[in-house]
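Lecture notes, continued. The same structure-token format from the folding unit now serves as the input rather than the output. Read the line below as a description of shape only.
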């Protein structure tokens, strides 16, 4: 090697050019958040498969209830409404909120609509109250009051509400599957429920439910993505085979039989079928306000916890644990609640199953675009969705009830009786009175009374005094001759 060659300065190198970001990448901030298009697509698919069971479960829950005139909602139309609203709101959250949080009809609030609102009014009236709750959510966000109202209810009591809803959902699953049934009044017993139809478990439908529950829980333990959907599909196939080779007296509302044509045009008959103020004429202004408040509260706290939990897991929060741009996300959530009522699919809310997509690497709203697109495709598979029997779908309620409880019970301060007892009352009264409204009302009243008894009146937010007073008046209405 020559001296000149050895001492020659190296030629300057061109700076390494980064690949130009596409408009899609820039809009959703995919690279900025350390993600990639392939991760977002995988995350979108994972979230869809983790929560697609709602297309089956929501029609079963709503379709099994009657309004005050004995009318049922059409199952096929409910499937269309559920899928359409999930597609629309999930896409909206992705495009406006730019977070990987998918939305669909909320499990819990749909039981409020089906079992508490509808029996007292018509279906359009009940859905109108859901729309009103959505408007209130949007108003609270626009005025900056949503976060303030959130802070008025103690954390432990909020967790008690979540747990109560989880227990209520589990009981709904047990009843709808036929695993437990109501003992007829003619039996003259103080025991309200029994195992099976006569104190024993028998029949193929119940076996499908038991195997489905065990399969769902086993897949969850194994952390299998899409565990709930896998179980529903597997047990539906088993039910179809069983129904074809044996004689089953009744599967309930849905008989598992493969449709002649699995693809069909969506039935949009329920879209727009709501009455904003019709329900108030049926139940009165005060009861109507309490119904709207119950829907609002169910959506309010469930969505807030889900949004913060997923945003933290996706590393979208700052050092103080706050998520930049959260008002956009909260406002879309309000739109989703109203959209659910307007489509007759019940209130739509954020789904914790979105963590499946985050686990696959999703960090932006583009994952929601994928998930929403898949829900849109599901619109054309109504005949397949409506062949799923409740015994194959209700194991998901058991699993979701467990997941809700496991996420919340450890966050209650059981050493502080002024929180622990109201939380306990809340979570027990929901399933035992078959009413989310009763659980919330009794929990709030208990909290105020115990804090006053403990000499801690200054620790009670003004909003809790007001709400508890409204609930107290509500419970006294029959005694006062106001109902």
């Amino acid at each position: 090697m020559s001296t000149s060659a050895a001492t020659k300065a190296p030629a300057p190198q061109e700076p390494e050019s980064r690949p130009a970001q596409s408009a899609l990448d820039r809009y959703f901030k995919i690279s900025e958040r350390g993600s990639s298009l392939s991760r977002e697509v995988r995350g979108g698919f994972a979230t869809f498969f983790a929560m697609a069971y709602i297309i089956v479960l929501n029609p079963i829950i709503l379709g099994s209830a009657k309004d005050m005139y004995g009318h049922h909602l059409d199952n096929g139309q409910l499937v269309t409404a559920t899928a359409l609203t999930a597609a629309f709101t999930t896409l909206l959250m992705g495009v406006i909120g730019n977070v990987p949080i998918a939305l669909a009809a909320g499990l819990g609030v749909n039981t409020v609509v089906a079992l508490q609102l509808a029996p007292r009014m018509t279906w359009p009236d009940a859905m109108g109250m859901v729309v009103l709750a959505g408007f209130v959510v949007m108003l609270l966000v626009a005025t900056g009051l949503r976060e303030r109202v959130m802070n008025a209810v103690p954390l432990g009591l909020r967790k008690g509400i979540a747990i109560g809803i989880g227990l209520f959902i589990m009981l709904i699953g047990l009843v709808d599957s036929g695993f437990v049934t109501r003992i007829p009044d003619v039996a003259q017993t103080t025991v309200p429920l029994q195992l099976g139809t006569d104190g024993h478990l028998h029949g193929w439908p119940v076996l499908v439910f038991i195997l489905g529950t065990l399969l769902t829980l086993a897949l969850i333990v194994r952390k299998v993505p899409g565990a709930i959907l896998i179980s529903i599909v597997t047990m539906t196939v088993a039910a179809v085979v069983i129904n074809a080779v044996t004689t089953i007296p009744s599967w309930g509302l849905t008989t598992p039989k493969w449709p002649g044509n699995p693809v069909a045009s969506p039935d949009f008959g329920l879209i727009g079928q709501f009455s904003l103020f019709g329900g108030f004429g049926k139940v009165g202004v005060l009861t109507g306000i309490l119904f709207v408040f119950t829907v609002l509260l169910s959506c309010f706290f469930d969505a807030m916890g889900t949004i913060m939990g997923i945003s933290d897991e996706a590393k979208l929060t700052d050092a103080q644990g706050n998520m930049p741009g959260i008002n956009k996300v909260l406002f879309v959530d309000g739109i989703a609640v109203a959209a659910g009522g307007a489509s007759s699919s019940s209130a739509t809310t954020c789904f914790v199953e979105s963590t499946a997509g985050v686990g696959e690497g999703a960090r932006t709203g583009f994952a929601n675009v994928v998930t929403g697109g898949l829900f849109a495709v599901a619109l054309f598979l109504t005949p397949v969705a409506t062949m799923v029997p409740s015994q194959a779908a209700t194991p998901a309620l058991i699993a979701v009830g467990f997941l809700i409880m496991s996420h919340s019970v450890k966050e209650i301060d059981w050493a502080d009786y002024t929180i622990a007892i109201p939380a306990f009352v809340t979570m027990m009264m929901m399933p035992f009175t078959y009413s989310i409204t009763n659980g919330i009302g009794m929990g709030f009243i208990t909290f105020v009374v115990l804090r006053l008894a403990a000499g801690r009146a200054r620790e009670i937010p003004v909003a809790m005094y007001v709400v508890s007073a409204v609930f107290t008046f509500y419970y006294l209405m029959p005694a006062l001759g106001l109902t």
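Point for the exam: Residues 63 and 73 are 5 Å apart (CA to CA).
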